[in-house]
Amino acid sequence: MIIRYLGTHNAESKNTRLVSFLIDNVLAVDAGSLVSELTFSEQKKIKAILLSHGHYDHIRAVPAFAFNNSDRTTKVIATQKTLEILSSHLIDGVVYPEFTSDASFLRKAALKLVPLEPFKPRNIEGYKVRAVPVQHNLDGVGFEITAGDKTLFYTGDTGPGLSSIWGNISPQLLITDLTWPNSLATAAKDAGHLCPEMLEEELIEFHRVNNYLPKVTVIHLSPQHESDIEGEVREIGESLGISINIAHEGEELVL
Questions:
Q1: What are the pLDDT digits (tens) for 197-207?
Q2: Is 80 exceeded by the pLDDT of residue 104?
């Protein structure tokens, strides 16, 4: 699997983009920056879009993608709650056309919404995908994604308390929320996010349950606090004896 990071932050600026990444250029995971970082020809290669939850910074580029790729129908796969949010708040016929309907001005459906039930594996364009509930509101989920003998787990937005799912997954790569520094631990927990000290506790528990640690990449960083987060991430990496990668826009990782 080739993972290409399009957006890796929780706030957008000239130099930072909202969360989205591609797997092998065909499977998009979250859609914060799905179109702004891709050429039209690159967008054409995408066969399906996974959405972890319904917050704007994870779904906002879906309508733009639909408009740019209206000559075909692309699957958008998420929990029923997330699909309802997308339909009622963005592709609602007011803010954007109802891209799922033949009655839109395009005269054909550009998107097909596919509900994904938690814990039930599904074959999506050759990938085995399983949605796993995490500690975030709006029924947030993470995704276990497998191709051949390679598996990654993306937490989506999540707060602490992942021990209940660690025994159900065994990825080689963990792509995890890490939004704020330790100085904002209370805010992170209240908002359903992680800070470095929380991530360390989660990784210690992962090792206790699975007797190994996967490669770890952190995503969804707050740009205003990134330097503090980087220092704290180095400290927990040294404490655990592993290297923790901080995802940046435009990077690729081969698993």
A1: 999 999 999 99
A2: no
The pLDDT-based confidence of 108 (bands split at 50, 70, 90) is: confident
CATH classification at residue 38: 3.60.15.10
Per-residue pLDDT band for 103 (boundaries 50, 70, 90) equals confident
Distance of CA 243 to the CA centre of its chain: 21
Task: Name the band, by pLDDT with cuts 50, 70 and 90, for residue 253.
Answer: very high
Query: Residue 9: how many CB atoms within 10 A of its CB?
Result: 25
Give me the number of domains the chain comprises. Answer: 1
Go through 196-215 and write b for each residue having 16 or more CB atoms within 10 A of its CB, e for each that does not: bebbbbbbebbeebeeeebb
pTM, to two decimals: 0.96
Range of the domain at 133: 2-254
